[in-house]
From TrEMBL:
The lineage of its organism: Eukaryota, Metazoa, Chordata, Craniata, Vertebrata. It comes from the Eukaryota. The keyword Disulfide bond applies. Pfam families: Sushi. SMART domains: CCP (SM00032). This is CR2 protein. It comes from Psilopogon haemacephalus (coppersmith barbet).
Amino acid sequence: WLSLLSPAAHCPFPHIRYGRRVPVSRYSYRAGDTVSFACNTGFTLRGSRTSRCQPDLTWSPPLPLCNRGKCPGHSRGGKPL
């Protein structure tokens, strides 16, 4: 069956653990809105840096993950390259 979504419907809030939205300027997202992400210091992004709220109120591509790992540009000893 076909479900009609309310024009006021919003995607779930795009929270990622150990990361943040960039810039942090919106608190709700409708179909067509795009959000960008960055990870906290000491974490690396796995997945797409941006995601778009779809008409079915899902995020595509899926929200990324922030994994604990080496920071880009640092050697094993933690010294800048």
